[in-house]
Amino acid sequence: MHKQDDSTENNNREHMRNQRSSSRVKGQSQTKDVVNWDRMGRRFWNEYVSPMANNRLAKIARIGKPAVRRLPGRSPKR
């Protein structure tokens, strides 16, 4: 019984040695960081929308303040 416990412990140690760090796996798989990808997308969009005229829908949506109120009976937020 003691021999079996030793072999299980050795297998666990070997398994731990064979595990890779997440940064190493990320580097090998060439995946992009989601946070940086999102920030780059927002920066691109802001640079694209900034030169537009203020009456363009994309610019109005970026500013985020609607010019009209909601109809009576509709809640202010969804």
UniProtKB/TrEMBL annotation:
Biased composition (Basic and acidic residues): 1-17
Polar residues bias locations: 19-33
Region (Disordered): 1-35
Domain of life: Eukaryota
Name assigned to this protein: Uncharacterized protein
